[in-house]
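Per your request, structure below.
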């Protein structure tokens, strides 16, 4: 769904009668992106009990990114120190910045770096 939104599609307030996902308007056409992508992604089917109130089949959609192998990323031990230095640099820039909008941008960067620092300490 995110790929369609980023591509300019519009999410509608209607839901797909087949799968219940939100409907989208893509290039003037109304469509269910989940049903459209079902053919592109791997789909597994599981049978349910015959007396169940649910449909006979259950579709499990595996996104493209989930099938990709996960690569481990090396993490540097000096990240907290580098974040601290970055926060200090942004503080110095914000202190001498005459433009309020740029100062606000620096403050947002400081907040983001500080939040990352807190998450690393957990």
């Amino acid at each position: 769904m995110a790929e369609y939104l980023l591509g300019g599609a519009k999410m509608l307030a209607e839901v797909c009668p087949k799968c219940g996902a939100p409907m989208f308007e893509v290039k003037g056409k109304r469509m269910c992106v989940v049903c459209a992508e079902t053919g592109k992604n791997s789909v597994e089917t599981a049978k349910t009990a015959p007396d169940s109130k649910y449909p006979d089949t259950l579709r499990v959609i595996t996104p493209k990114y989930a099938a990709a192998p996960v690569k481990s990323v090396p993490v540097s031990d000096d990240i907290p120190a580098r974040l601290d230095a970055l926060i200090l640099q942004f503080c110095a820039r914000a202190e001498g910045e005459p433009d309020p909008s740029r100062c606000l941008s620096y403050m947002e960067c400081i907040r983001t770096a500080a939040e990352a620092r807190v998450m690393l300490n957990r």
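The beta strands are 10-15, 22-26, 29-32, 42-47, 57-62.

Regards,
D.
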